[in-house]
Structure formats: C-alpha cells, structure tokens
Amino acid sequence: MAERHTLVVTAGESDRRLDRFLAERFPHHSRSYLQKLIRDGHVTLAERTAKTGASLSAGDHVQVVFPPARASGIVPEAVPLSILHEDHEIIVVDKPAGMVVHPAAGAASGTLVHALMHHCKDLSGVGGVERPGIVHRLDKNTSGVIVVAKTDEAHRALTRQFQDRTVTKVYVALVWGHLSVDEGTVDLAIGRDTRSRVKISARTHRPREAVTQYKVLRRLPASAAVPSFTWLEARPRTGRTHQIRVHLKSLGHPVVGDTVYGGVTPGKIANPGWTVALKAFTRLALHAHRIAFVHPSTGLPVSFESPVPPDIRDLIEAIER
To answer: Which of 60, 94, 139, 258 is the catalytic position?
Structure first.
C-alpha cells in the first residue's frame, strides 16, 4: 500500500531545492532514492508534477507518495551475521567494524544488506531496492547494534520513531586526551563541508541541527611514553552523518582510529611500541553499544545491547597496563 504525505514549506525552508527539502524532511531515506521518486512522478508541487531542482517558497504544498515496496535485485550472500534478536517484525544485528550497511559506490557486495537478504528472505522494501529494511545506519568502521525492519509496517513505525527522536542510542568511544569535564552537551549544527565532500563539519552551506550528549566513563592513565585517552559514552539526540565523530573532534578529542577527523597521531607518541600498536588499530574506536525503542507490533519498550568488541577492549587494557 502506498504511503502518502502532504508537507507545507516553512519560511525557513524557502528557496530550498525540492530534493534537499525532502532529504531534510525524510532523513532516513537516501537523497538518490528521493530524487528517483521525483523523477518517477511521485512528488507534486502545487498539484503539478515536480522537478528535482524546483525552488520552494514559504507556504508551498508538497505531496509525496512512497509507492508500495518492490522486490530487490540484490543477490543474497551467505555472509555470517551476529544476531542479537529476531522476530516476525524486526531483526537486531551486532554489526562488525569493516562491514558496509548497504550497497553503494565501492561496496557492491559483502554488505549487511547482502547478508540479511540471505538470512531473512522477506525484508521490508520500503527503504528502496538497495536498502531493504534499513531504517538507520552505522559507518563502515563503526561496530555495534543496528535494527532492521522485516515488514513494511515495522519499517514505517521505526522510521517515525527515528524522525520523532524517541529512539535511544548509546555509543561508547575511546578518544584522544583527557576531557576537562565529566559530562556535557555538544550543540553544533553540521553539514557537508564546503571544502571536502568526504567530510562533515560546521563549515557548511546547509547546517542542520545536531546535538550529542557525552559522559566520561573513565580517564585512562598517561605517562611520558603513553599519551592520555578517555573512555566515554555518547548519546546522539539527532542522527546526522558522522555526528559523534565531528562533535568529539570539535571538543578537541577525536575518536582513536579516525583518519578523516584526526584520530590517529602516532607520530606524537614517544614510545615506538605504541606507534606500532595504534597504526595496527585500523578501525574507529567507536561502538554502538545500546539501542532502545518501542517495538512496532507489541507497543512495548525494548532495548538491545552489543558488548564492546575484543579489539577495543584489548587496546584499553594495554593502555591501562
């Protein structure tokens, strides 16, 4: 069954391109998927078929129709999965670092979606043929818990919860340096960086609200040979791309292993053994530890946890020794 939405453009959204406007209103759908909806005639502006680059004005009415799901053309692959929970509506997976969530440029196989297609046979198609069942994402080199919808109804229910910001997400991270306060909040709007398309930052033409709460779990001991690190908890209140990584970088404490936002600086370490150890740590020291939401069919609150992976635990133990 088709899903229909009628949206009214606000004063703050005037002069937006239509595709950008839809991407902001439906953040859990990809820009390419929304652009295809427009091209296929599923979006109207003032009751007329719209174009992707149409400019909006305050008060404009935009009608969006998400067509019924269709079969995915992805070839299932027998990639091993660590399943934390599964029922007829959802599947909760402990994603390893190094696994891409869905097919994209440079990741045509071996993704979480390929593995899920082999395991489930019946994923929701609401997210588009390349993202069946996907309602949120984790970066390739971030590990941890991720929930996937198995039915269209579950997909819509979970997407609404993410859009309403009622889903609780708890991450843990190892960052460089000792934070000066035990807890705090980063409220910093971010978007695609004006100078680098691979980065997200506050230096952007399209800033979007982004809020992350953090709390120090413990400060790891430091010495002349071993630099200081902090093990902390991060709770994103919004779901922007690279949000936690960018916000921690803004505090001056990037995530260990983050080559994009400055999380690897082995040259600053006096002890050559630590230089080797940190160069060998080729992933982000960032882990999606827990997720909590309302189950789409029972209406009851549920929570799922993924233990901290052995490679991060081993690094922390080595530092503390």
So the answer is: 139
Find out whether 92 and 145 touch, Cβ atoms under 8 Å.
Answer: yes
Terminal CA-to-CA distance of the chain, rounded, Å?
58
For residue 133, name the pLDDT band (cuts at 50, 70, 90): confident
Q: CA–CA separation, 100 vs 137, rounded Å?
A: 9
Would you state the structure tokens that stand for residue 53, as one six-digit string? 């680059």
Tell the residue number behind the tokens 């969006």, with chain if given: 64
Quick one: which H or E segment has residue 56? none
pLDDT digits (tens, 9 = 90+) for 248-273: 999 999 999 999 998 665 455 556 66
Active site residue 139: yes
Structural domains for the chain: 3-66 (3.10.290.10), 69-159 (3.30.2350.10), 169-288+312-320 (3.30.2350.10)
At residue 70 the predicted structure's pLDDT band, cuts being 50, 70 and 90, is low
Cα–Cα distance for residue pair 190/17, rounded to 1 Å: 19
